[in-house]
Amino acid sequence: MTSRMELLSSLAVENLTKMVLLVVDGLGGLPGPKGLTELESARTPHLDELAARGETGLLEMMGPGVTVGSGPGHLALFGYGPDCPVGRGVIEALGVEAPVAPGDVCARGNLCRIGEREIVVDRRAGRISTERSRRVLERLQREMGPIDGVSVALHPAEDHRFVAVFSGPDLDFRLSDADPQKEGRAFRECRPLVPQASFTASVVNAFLARTREILDGDPEVSGCLLRGFSTRPDLPTLEELYKTRSAALAAYPMYRGLARLVGMEVLEAGPRPKDLFHAVQAYWDDYDFFFIHVKTPHLRGEDGDFAGKVRALEAFDEDLPILVDLQPTVLAVTGDHSTPSLLRGHSWHPVPLLFFSPYGRPDDVISFGERVCARGGLGRMDASGLMGLMLAHALRLMKYGA
Amino acid sequence: MTSRMELLSSLAVENLTKMVLLVVDGLGGLPGPKGLTELESARTPHLDELAARGETGLLEMMGPGVTVGSGPGHLALFGYGPDCPVGRGVIEALGVEAPVAPGDVCARGNLCRIGEREIVVDRRAGRISTERSRRVLERLQREMGPIDGVSVALHPAEDHRFVAVFSGPDLDFRLSDADPQKEGRAFRECRPLVPQASFTASVVNAFLARTREILDGDPEVSGCLLRGFSTRPDLPTLEELYKTRSAALAAYPMYRGLARLVGMEVLEAGPRPKDLFHAVQAYWDDYDFFFIHVKTPHLRGEDGDFAGKVRALEAFDEDLPILVDLQPTVLAVTGDHSTPSLLRGHSWHPVPLLFFSPYGRPDDVISFGERVCARGGLGRMDASGLMGLMLAHALRLMKYGA
Question: Above 0.90 for ipTM, yes or no?
Answer without folding.
Answer: no
